[in-house]
Amino acid sequence: MSRATDKKMDDLHDLVVEQAIRLMKYGRPLISNGEPVLDPEGEIIYIPPTAAELTAAARILKDNGIDSPLKSQEQLTAEEDAMRSIIKDIESIPTGEYVN
After folding, report:
1. Could you tell me which of 93, 97, 98, 99 has the C-alpha nearest to residue 36?
2. Would you call 64 helix, strand, or coil by DSSP?
3. How far apart are CA 100 and CA 78, in angstroms?
4. Extended strands (E) in 22-70
5. What share of the chain in percent tops pLDDT 90?
6. Is residue 17, in this structure, part of any structural domain at all?
7. Among 24, 36, 52, 59, which residue has the fewest nearby CB atoms (within 10 Å)?
């Protein structure tokens, strides 16, 4: 078995990072019975990444020596408000009833 070339490893790294960015930016589709859940307008409902996915993304940043500058209180407040909005949206999703 041959070892992966540097180019192949770079390509794999790029794909992993692209997927992590897409997941952090848009979330993942909410799935029920193997199918995406749609909102009343027929659009797929997306949910935030899981704690494990956030941890993996943070690890990618750490492993690549990527850091961000400190944010202003205004930026932090805006992000906090956005997270509250996401949580309210998730809490409003009907969960249905479990039928045995």
Report:
1. 93
2. coil
3. 43
4. 28-29, 31-32, 35-36, 46-47
5. 16
6. yes
7. 52
Residue that has been written with the tokens 């690890």 in this structure: 59
13 belongs to a structural domain:
yes
Q: Which helix (H) or strand (E) holds 86?
A: helix 73-91
- List pLDDT tens digits, range 2-30: 677 888 888 988 898 898 888 888 888 99
* Number of residues assigned to the chain: 100
Q: Rounded to whole angstroms, how far apart are CA atoms 47 and 26?
A: 8
Identify the residue whose tokens are 């997941």: 23
- Provide the percentage of residues in the chain whose pLDDT is more than 70: 87
Structural domain for 57, as ranges = 6-69
d(CA 20, CA 18): 5
Please count the structural domains in the chain: 1
d(Cα 44, Cα 99) in Å, to the nearest integer? Answer: 24
Most distant pair of Cα atoms in the chain: their distance: 54
